[in-house]
Write a structure and sequence with these properties.
Elements (H helix, E strand, L loop, with lengths): L1 E4 L6 H11 L5 E5 L6 H9 L5 E5 L6 H14 L4 E4 L11 H8 L4 E5 L6 E3 L3 H18 L11 E4 H6 L11 H12 L4 E5 L1 E3 L10 H17 L1
Parallel strand pairs: 1-2, 2-3, 5-8, 6-9
Antiparallel strand pairs: 4-7, 5-7
Helix pairs in contact: 5-8, 7-8
Length: about 230
C-alpha cells in the first residue's frame, strides 16, 4: 500500500496499527513530502521494528499525484504484483481491504467506492458531499464510463495495469489524478471492479482539498476525453 503523507503525524501510527492488525501480510510504503510536523521521522521510527514498512522521503511538498507515482515506481522496482493506494488520515478504513482483495481475483483494478450500494460517507458536510458527488457524476458523464466513484483514492492495482499506463505521461497531480488513472485503465481494456466502502472524514488535521484542486479536476476531465 502506497500511503502519501504531509503532516499526518497524529494519524499515521493508528493507520499502521490497523493495517498490522489485519494479519494479511500487507507491506506499506509511506511517501512523505518533508512534513513540517515530523511525520517522516515518525514513519522511520515505526519502520525500525517493522520490516514490511518502508519510508520514501521527498524534498518538499510536490503534490499528491507525484507522490503516488513515486510510490508506484518504487513498488514496481521492488517486484510487487499488487500495488494499492490509500489516504493516511484514516478516512480509508483498512477493514475494507479483505473485500477489495477478494474482488481483485476477478479484476485488474479495484476501487473502494462510496457511490455503489453499501457505500457512503460519514461526518461530511453538505458542501463536501455535493462537490464529491458532482465531481464523480461530471467525470462519469463526460468520459462516458460506468464507474460510479471516479474521484476516490482507495485502490488496488495489478502490476500489469501500472506497467501499461506509462506513468511518466500522467498529467494530473491533484484531485483529477484519481480520475485519470482509472480512465486510462479503462481505455486500456482492464477489468475494473467497485467495492463499497464507508469513507469517514478525517478527525485530526486539515483537509487538503482546495478550490484550486477542484478547478484542476474540472479542467483536466475534458482534456482526458479529447486526448483519448
Amino acid at each position: 500500500m502506497v500511503v502519501p503523507t504531509y503532516n499526518e503525524r497524529e494519524n499515521l501510527p493508528e493507520l499502521i496499527r490497523r493495517l498490522e492488525a489485519l494479519g494479511l501480510g500487507i507491506h506499506v510504503l509511506v511517501v512523505d513530502d518533508s512534513s513540517p510536523d515530523g511525520t517522516g521521522d515518525l514513519a522511520e521510527e515505526l519502520a525500525a521494528s517493522r520490516p514490511w514498512l518502508r519510508v520514501l522521503h521527498r524534498p518538499g511538498k510536490a503534490g499528491l499525484g507525484t507522490a503516488y507515482l513515486a510510490g508506484f515506481r518504487l513498488a514496481l522496482q521492488l517486484g510487487y504484483d499488487v500495488i494499492g493506494e490509500m489516504d493516511a488520515d484514516l478516512s480509508h478504513d483498512p477493514a475494507h481491504l479483505p473485500a477489495m482483495l477478494r474482488a481483485l481475483e476477478g479484476a485488474d483494478l479495484v476501487l473502494g467506492s462510496r457511490y455503489v450500494a453499501g457505500g457512503g460517507t460519514r461526518n461530511w458536510g453538505l458542501l463536501r458531499r455535493l462537490i464529491s458527488r458532482a465531481g464523480s457524476c461530471y467525470s462519469r458523464w463526460l468520459l462516458g464510463v460506468e464507474i460510479h466513484d471516479l474521484t476516490g483514492g482507495y485502490k488496488l492495482f495489478r502490476r500489469r495495469v501500472l506497467e501499461s499506463l506509462d506513468l511518466d505521461s500522467v498529467r494530473s497531480n491533484g484531485y483529477s489524478f484519481q480520475i485519470e488513472m482509472t480512465y486510462r485503465a479503462i481505455r486500456k481494456g482492464f477489468r475494473v471492479a467497485e467495492v463499497p466502502i464507508i469513507f469517514e472524514d478525517r478527525r485530526v488535521g486539515r483537509s487538503k482539498l482546495t478550490h484550486q484542486v477542484v478547478l484542476e479536476a474540472m479542467l483536466m476531465v475534458p482534456r482526458l476525453r479529447l486526448g483519448g
